[in-house]
């Protein structure tokens, strides 16, 4: 590619709404251009990065035996009604109507559509397993779109869905995808960590997130340096014994609440409105392990909290913004938190609430009037980050450490949540009809572009890993219009490198060296070759890697080996 043909558009300053390094640099390097909140043009330079990321993902998915297809961005609401998500999903799901008044959604993900395809196309165990994936536009009406394409509203995701005759086979494919994701992020040249993300027991966890390690990451991760324990912090906290064993410290009012299995029933027993109960409610224990589930008082959970909450309350995936009611509604049979066995969710903001209803850790009883801090040990409401750092690792093999990460991938054992609801069945070897087991596997393609920058930059700009750089090498001729020798050498080198399959850009804009170098350093091209009259007299060029402090003189005919 020649720079004059291409589209190079750099900025001296980042727009004021860019908060973090990757967003600023992406804007300044002309990779993306904002159209609306969380909605960006992928400019030619940025699109080259995205295509390379997609290429690696596609390559590894194909190698793993997955099959590519593409599903529509605009999807009929009927399918989403079948699984109940049309109503339950909350505002992250963008709903629209066509000219006939029919409801549609913009896909935030595609479980419904892929399950609909498979239930029509696959009848027999002989056609299973299948893993279908797409690399497609997604839309989520995020409450707080920010950080450029890292948390966009429109973004590109690779989403894969696998279908199986048995749970064992799902687990096999899950491991296959786990390994595939590890290969993908290794090839992308990123430092990453896979963490357990389910509330299930360690060892048999049904969900993992892949995080790019970065200080600016929105998520906290807990891991044990002395073992292979690694979990997102919600899970680590749920598993860490020190944060779960809470006991009431003071005499509280114990109320008999026989048979109260829902929030409404509980509220009825306590003679308080359900809405008020929901503000500060909390919940029940199981055998010996008290459970304290605190909710924000503002009646709204942000999506992360809703996700955590639903993870606690049900095996369902629930990853959209939701009101508390919606989150509870996501639990099967609307069992709600009452009577739920097990885990902890702690939110500091709840510490200020008083008169909390809590589980009495005894069947059919609740305490009212609990005051967090007074009746429960303070560590229970400590900041999540501090609550687990230094805690014993749940596997007992050492202490936990905390780091921050950017979620770039998520794999999940869906089991029969969607296949059951949508009647996605097959005839087994024994001739009997059975519901398929399912898994789903997502990668945030456009988010990776930002995450990679968060990990690789300096004061001059981006430093792309070779594997995803928009161009691998840039040729910078000094005096393009002035020197025929420079032009000839540059053109020749350009053709040679192209013939070798190297992604090369020739900067024929006739810019001053300072401006030219600044552009390519900002854009982050990993290899630069300067062609100048002085060097050519000695038959040398100047090579400089993006991380090198100085240039190296390299004989003209050896340059290819430097940039490969
Ligand atoms: P987050 O916790 O960051 O909101 P999520 O858990 O809601 O992400 P998933 O439903 O697991 O996201 O989707 C799979 C992947 O899609 C995520 O791991 C992430 O890389 C990417 N992704 C999700 N939301 C966005 C977004 N708003 N912008 C860009 N990428 C996203
Ligand atoms: Mg989300
Ligand atoms: Mg998440
Ligand atoms: Mg996720």
TrEMBL record:
A Pfam family reported for this protein in Swiss-Prot or TrEMBL: tRNA_edit
Enzyme Commission code: 6.1.1.15
UniProt enzyme class: ligase
Catalysis performed (reactions): tRNA(Pro) + L-proline + ATP = L-prolyl-tRNA(Pro) + AMP + diphosphate
Localization per record: Cytoplasm
Protein name in UniProt: Proline--tRNA ligase
Record key words, sorted: Aminoacyl-tRNA synthetase, ATP-binding, Cytoplasm, Ligase, Nucleotide-binding, Protein biosynthesis
Molecular function GO labels: proline-tRNA ligase activity
UniProt free text on domains: Consists of three domains: the N-terminal catalytic domain, the editing domain and the C-terminal anticodon-binding domain.
Function as written in the Swiss-Prot or TrEMBL entry: Catalyzes the attachment of proline to tRNA(Pro) in a two-step reaction: proline is first activated by ATP to form Pro-AMP and then transferred to the acceptor end of tRNA(Pro). As ProRS can inadvertently accommodate and process non-cognate amino acids such as alanine and cysteine, to avoid such errors it has two additional distinct editing activities against alanine. One activity is designated as 'pretransfer' editing and involves the tRNA(Pro)-independent hydrolysis of activated Ala-AMP.
Chief site of localization: cytoplasm
Subunit structure: Homodimer.
Keyword Metal-binding: no
UniProt record similarity statement: Belongs to the class-II aminoacyl-tRNA synthetase family. ProS type 1 subfamily.
Source organism: Uliginosibacterium silvisoli
Entry-linked HAMAP family: Pro_tRNA_synth_type1 (MF_01569)
Domain Aminoacyl-transfer RNA synthetases class-II family profile: 38-465
Record-linked InterPro entries: aa-tRNA-synt_IIb, aa-tRNA-synth_II, aa-tRNA-synth_II/BPL/LPL, Anticodon-bd, Anticodon-bd_dom_sf, Pro-tRNA-ligase_IIa, Pro-tRNA-synth_IIa_bac-type, Pro-tRNA-Synthase_IIa_type1
């Amino acid at each position: 590619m020649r720079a004059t043909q291409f589209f190079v558009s750099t900025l001296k300053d980042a727009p004021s709404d860019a908060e973090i390094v990757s967003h600023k640099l992406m804007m300044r390097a002309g990779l993306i251009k904002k159209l609306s909140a969380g909605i960006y043009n992928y400019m030619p330079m940025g699109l080259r990065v995205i295509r390379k990321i997609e290429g690696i993902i596609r390559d590894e998915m194909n190698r793993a035996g997955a099959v590519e297809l593409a599903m529509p961005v605009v999807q009929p609401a009927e399918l989403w009604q079948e699984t109940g998500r049309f109503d339950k999903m909350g505002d992250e799901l963008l709903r629209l109507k066509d000219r006939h008044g029919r409801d549609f959604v913009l896909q935030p993900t595609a479980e419904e559509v892929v399950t609909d395809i498979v239930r029509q196309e696959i009848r027999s165990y002989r056609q299973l397993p299948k893993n279908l994936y797409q690399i497609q536009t997604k839309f989520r009406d995020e409450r707080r779109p920010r950080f450029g394409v890292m948390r966009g509203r429109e973004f590109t995701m690779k989403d894969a869905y696998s279908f199986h005759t048995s749970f064992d086979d799902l687990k096999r494919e899950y491991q296959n995808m786990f390994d595939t994701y590890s290969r993908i992020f290794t090839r992308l040249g990123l430092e990453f960590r896979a963490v357990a993300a389910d509330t299930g027991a360690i060892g048999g966890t049904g969900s993992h997130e892949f995080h790019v390690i970065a200080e600016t990451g929105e998520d906290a991760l807990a891991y044990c340096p002395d073992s292979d324990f690694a979990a997102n912090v919600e899970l680590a906290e749920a598993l860490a014994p020190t944060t779960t064993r809470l006991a009431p410290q003071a005499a509280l009012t114990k109320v008999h609440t026989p048979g109260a299995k829902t929030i409404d029933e509980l509220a009825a027993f306590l003679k308080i409105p359900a809405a008020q109960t929901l503000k500060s409610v909390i919940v029940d224990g199981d055998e010996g392990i008290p459970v304290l589930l605190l909710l924000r008082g503002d009646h709204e959970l942000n999506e992360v909290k809703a996700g955590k909450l639903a993870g606690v309350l049900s095996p369902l995936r629930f990853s959209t913004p939701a009101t508390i009611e919606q989150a509870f509604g996501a639990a099967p049979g609307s069992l709600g938190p009452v009577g739920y066995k097990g885990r902890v969710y702690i939110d500091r903001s709840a510490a200020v609430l008083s008169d909390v209803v809590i589980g009495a850790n005894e069947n059919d009883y609740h305490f009212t009037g609990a005051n967090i801090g007074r009746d429960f040990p303070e560590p229970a409401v400590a900041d999540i980050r501090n609550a687990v750092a230094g805690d014993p690792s749940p596997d007992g093999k050492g202490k936990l450490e905390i780091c921050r990460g950017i979620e770039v991938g998520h794999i999940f054992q869906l089991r029969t949540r969607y296949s059951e609801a949508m009647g996605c069945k097959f005839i087994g070897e024994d001739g009997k009809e059975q519901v398929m087991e399912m898994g789903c596997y997502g990668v945030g393609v456009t988010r990776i572009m930002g995450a990679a920058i968060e990990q690789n930059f300096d004061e001059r700009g981006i430093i792309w890993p070779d594997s995803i750089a928009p161009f691998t090498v840039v040729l910078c001729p000094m005096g393009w219009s002035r020197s025929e020798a420079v032009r000839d050498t540059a053109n020749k080198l350009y053709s040679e490198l192209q013939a070798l399959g190297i992604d090369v850009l020739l900067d024929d804009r006739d810019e001053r060296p300072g401006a030219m170098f600044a552009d390519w350093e900002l854009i982050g091209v990993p290899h630069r070759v300067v062609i100048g009259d002085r060097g050519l007299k000695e038959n040398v060029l100047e090579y400089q890697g993006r991380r090198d402090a100085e240039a190296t003189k390299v004989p003209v005919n050896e340059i290819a080996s430097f940039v490969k």
